[in-house]
TrEMBL record:
Mg(2+) 1 binds at E92, D114, L116. Belongs to the FBPase class 1 family. This is Fructose-1,6-bisphosphatase class 1. It catalyses: beta-D-fructose 1,6-bisphosphate + H2O = beta-D-fructose 6-phosphate + phosphate. Pfam families: FBPase, FBPase_C. InterPro entries: FBPase_C_dom, FBPase_class-1, FBPase_N, FBPtase, Fructose_bisphosphatase_AS. Residues 200-331 form the Fructose-1-6-bisphosphatase class 1 C-terminal domain. The keyword Nuclease does not apply. One of its GO terms (biological process) is sucrose biosynthetic process. Its EC number is 3.1.3.11. It is found in: Cytoplasm. Its cofactor is Mg(2+).
Length: 336
């Protein structure tokens, strides 16, 4: 029943009491949840506001920005500003680090975010989402100290995403499992629907942009070919395939019913080392997948242990059910 379900606020206060989660982090997450509600509202009404289309600008990765990419970015920035502990923000849509404090900085939190993930889905009324990651530093940093913002994913204290789909949801981890909340339209509250999400150990569903087949390296091609061979092949079972065009949606499906998601480095994206971005796509999703018992790999190494060297750095991504990710890593080891 609806009223038996914990609100996000009560859940966060429980985390504060039982795991010592800081009150500032509780408030920060509530502010991020508010940003997500605002973005959800803007997307639902985007056709009336005329905001589903492209803006005139490009982001640092050379992608044409949607008006809603910029709107969502602004929502994240303005709500996160409420938290006095945040020193710096890193956004997909902003080239440089956004410093929230004048020097000397008083903040020890950094928030990384992809304000709108899968934004090419906006035109066709398919689901999109937002992704975020929070790192706490041992001490406050100086504004302009970019090196201090380049933290590996193992230092995340929180990660999550919101999906703007048939329901608006919020999925978070504070390092003690993965929890899913749904936004209730009457009260505006996020209420819990899944206490401890688990990625199924085994699965028979893969998620990859198969139009890039000709560009893949041999280990990825081998893995997918084995899946496609079905019952007659070495896997001895039939596989299903899904590709939504939005990482949040594909990862949410894997958290719900298992599977594996791949965006490998290939011949076409080798110059940038893959497509997806380490700090605000791969790391938060990797933390969530690990917290749910899955594996987050580059194909060769644990994503969370990659030491970033620049804020918009890209990485190959293999996320999901243990047995599938291990098999893909094994193919890389054997064929390298
Ligand atoms: P974004 O919209 O934030 O730029 O991210 C898009 C990403 C990711 O969500 C998705 O999995 C992938 O790009 C889709 O790539 P293809 O266009 O190759 O399908
Ligand atoms: Mn983009
Ligand atoms: Mn994205
Ligand atoms: Mn995006």
């Amino acid at each position: 029943m609806f009223y038996d379900r914990l609100t996000l606020r009560r859940f966060l206060l429980q985390e504060y009491r039982t795991h010592g989660v800081e009150k500032d982090l509780v408030f920060l997450l509530e502010d991020i949840a508010t940003a997500c509600r605002e973005i959800s509202f803007a997307i639902r009404n985007g056709a009336f506001f005329g905001t589903l289309g492209s803006a005139a600008s490009k982001n640092v990765q050379g992608e044409t920005q949607k008006e809603l990419d910029i709107f969502a970015n602004d929502q994240f920035v303005s709500h996160i500003r409420n938290c006095s502990r945040v020193a710096a923000l890193v956004s997909e849509e902003v080239e440089e680090v956004i410093w929230l404090k004048d020097s000397p900085a008083a903040g020890d939190y950094i928030v990384y975010f992809d304000p709108l993930d899968g934004s090419s889905n906006l035109d066709v009324n398919l689901s999109v989402g937002s992704i975020f990651s929070i790192v706490q530093l041992p001490e406050a940093i100086e504004a302009g100290d970019v090196a201090s913002v380049l933290r590996p994913g193992t230092e995340q204290i929180c990660a999550g995403y919101s999906i703007y789909g048939p329901a608006t949801t919020l999925v978070i981890t504070l390092g003690h499992g993965v929890h899913e909340f749904v936004n209730h339209l009457g009260t505006g509250e996020f209420r819990i629907v899944s206490g401890h999400m688990k990625v199924a150990e085994e699965s028979a569903e893969f998620s990859i942009n198969a139009s890039r087949f000709g560009d893949w390296d041999a280990p990825v091609r081998r893995y997918i070919e084995e899946c496609l061979e079905g019952e007659a092949g070495p896997r001895r079972k039939r596989f299903g395939m899904r590709w939504s065009g939005s990482m949040v949606v594909d990862i949410h499906r894997i958290l719900t019913r298992g599977g594996v998601f791949l965006y490998p480095e290939d011949r076409d994206n080798r110059a940038t080392g893959g497509k997806l971005r380490l700090l605000y796509e791969a790391n938060p999703m990797g933390f969530l997948i690990e917290q749910a018992g899955g594996i987050a790999s580059t194909g060769r190494a644990r994503i969370l242990e990659v030491q970033p060297t620049s804020i918009h750095q890209r990485t190959p991504v293999v996320l999901g059910s243990r047995s599938e990710v291990l098999r893909i890593e094994d193919h890389h080891t054997q064929m390298d």
